[in-house]
Amino acid sequence: MPVVRDLRVLLRLRDFRNLLAVRLLSQAADGVYQVALATYVVFSPEKQTSPAAIASAMAVLLLPYSAIGPFAGVLLDRWRRRQVFLYGNLLRALLACVTGMLIVANVPDWLFYASALSVTAVNRFVLAGLSASLPHVVGPGQLVTANALFPTAGTLAATVGGGLAFVVRLLASDSNAVVVLLGAGLYLCSALVSLSLAVDLLGPDHPPGRLNPSVAEGITLTVRGMAEGLRHLSTRREPVQALTAMTMMRFCYGALFVMLLMLCRFSWSDNESDGLALLGVAVGVSGAGFFTAAVITPSLVGRLGPLGWITACSAGAALLVPALGLFFAPGPMVIAAFVLGLATQGAKISTDTVVQSGVDDEYRGRVFSLYDVLFNVAFVGAAAVASLMLPPDGRSAALILSVAALYAATAALLARQSRRFTGGASKR
User: Fold this and answer.
1) What's the CATH fold of domain 10-427?
2) Higher confidence at residue 180 or residue 74?
3) Can you tell me the distance from the alpha carbon of 282 to that of 260, in angstroms, rounded to the nearest whole number?
4) pTM for the predicted model, two decimal places
5) Fewer Cβ close by (within 10 Å): the C or N end of the chain?
């Protein structure tokens, strides 16, 4: 099987294996930490959960550190990325321990959110750096397969970490602090594994100026550098199309995620533990969709092209989401979770490949940071829209149909642009 053969080739590359290990441990910790936060906010008996409360929590955790994204991009194109992984994960381990202590102390919500925000803020540097570093450990012809394995393996690691957090949370009551400390331990392991990579291996290739700008220089560089990055991106047709489509699909995913939280919490269960167990099943099945996408995407990208596969993923979601979701029953909705996992991850693999191959290395950090900002803003915007549309029990046919229409519009727009470009090229 070509995919298996290609994966074996990649796994023989020592530096790729080490970078992959950094990502697996880091994102497993992310999964643990995110589940701890979600269960503390949504599934704690003392909290009155509503769609608006979920949207507010997402806004507090995601929007402020989206502003860090451009700064992360500029600095990633100046700092040694290996050092970002080392010191970033060490800092996250320390801050996660602080969050765990705040949970035990039962502090006001604003202080808890401030601590959680500090952990997820550092995450922008690490994730954007991992994506920007990948072309330094594989060849150009291996990028599609590497992108099928690399981010998907990270997503699966986050799913496994989240599953482990679910198990700890279900086995022991009031264990959110223990789960957070487990995440801190995984962050520490990721930092230690990063030491197996050479300091200069991951770039950037041509850092402008000094490697360690001051804060004032960083602010100036951010404005100037993001303007340069946006100008560079505006001349790259395929990356712009892929990022636009991925942003729309992320919005759809966010809206359906909030719906799933409310269904698990109020429609399909009578208590917090049962609702948490149902959510764990849905997350696990979605992870199976991620894995399936990793297996089938390289061959389908070879046949359809990256944008063609994104179009197919969006079109398939447009058809299957209403067909499965309008039952508002656990069985069909779990199948829908698999479909969305496959479609979203398949589109993300293709988008990562398009951006990595279509953007020059000196701009990659900035573009991937913009990518992260678009992801977060789309997710929070979706949560806000869902909070306006969802009733207390989470059942909203209007939301499902609206999401399906948005998936369909994304597929239609990509198909139209592809035909226009092909037609123009043939005339020339």
Assistant:
1) Growth Hormone; Chain: A; (1.20.1250)
2) 180
3) 9
4) 0.76
5) C
